[in-house]
Amino acid sequence: MASKSKVNNSQESSILPEKFVNILEDVFHGILGIILFLVAMGALFFTLKRLFNTNPFFPNGMIQVVNDILFIVIILEIIRTVIARFTDGVYQLDKFLIIGVIAAVRHLLTVGASLTLGTYKDQEAFYRSLLELGVNAGIVVALVLAIYMSRMAHSRTAN
Fold first, then answer.
1. In sequence order, what are the residues at sequence separation of 6 or more whose Cβ sits closer than 8 angstroms to the Cβ of residue 40?
2. Helix, strand, or coil here: 54?
3. Cα-flanking dihedrals φ and ψ of residue 117, to 5°?
4. How far apart are CA 78 and CA 22, in angstroms?
5. Which one in 90, 106, 140, 145 has a CA-CA gap of 20 to 30 Å to 61?
6. Burial readout 82-96 (b: 16 or more C-beta within 10 A, e: otherwise)
7. DSSP at 60
């Protein structure tokens, strides 16, 4: 029986020390955070460039800028999630749910704006856009409900 536990311990052990793997993982997350920040800065630069170059500014430029800003917010929330991984040691479900809500609302605004602008769409494309709006609205409701349930679970475990 002692030999069997020895076999189990050797199967569970790793070639690399756990501390080294943790440091390597932290370095990798740090690099990813820096890359995401650079992407957010580049997106901000192109958003500002597009803001001044889009013609006509109203409504096309405004809609594009709102869409771009929400994209930057999504990137920043992902960076915040990576930073939270450093402080808490785990990825937090709430942060990913919030990113999902922002992404779904961004898509809702984009589809809604394209419908509002009155660009010509055949009946099939119009119904597809309405279906997209309905599905994304359902996703937003489901994600907000999931955030609520997650926070309720956290408050119960804290008490």
1. 72, 75, 76, 79
2. coil
3. -65, -20
4. 20
5. 140
6. beebeeeeeeeeebb
7. I
Distance between alpha carbon 70 and the CA centroid of its chain, in Å? 11
d(CA 146, CA 137): 14
The closest of 33, 109, 98, 31 to 69, measured between CA atoms, is 109
* H-only helix segments in the chain: 2-12, 18-53, 62-88, 93-116, 123-158
Q: What gap in Å lies between CA 144 and CA 152, rounded to an integer?
A: 12
Q: For residue 54, give both structure tokens.
A: 């889009």
Query: Residue 143 burial by CB count (10 A; 0-12/13-18/19+): exposed, middle or buried?
Result: buried
Q: Match 């809702």 to its residue by tokens.
A: 108
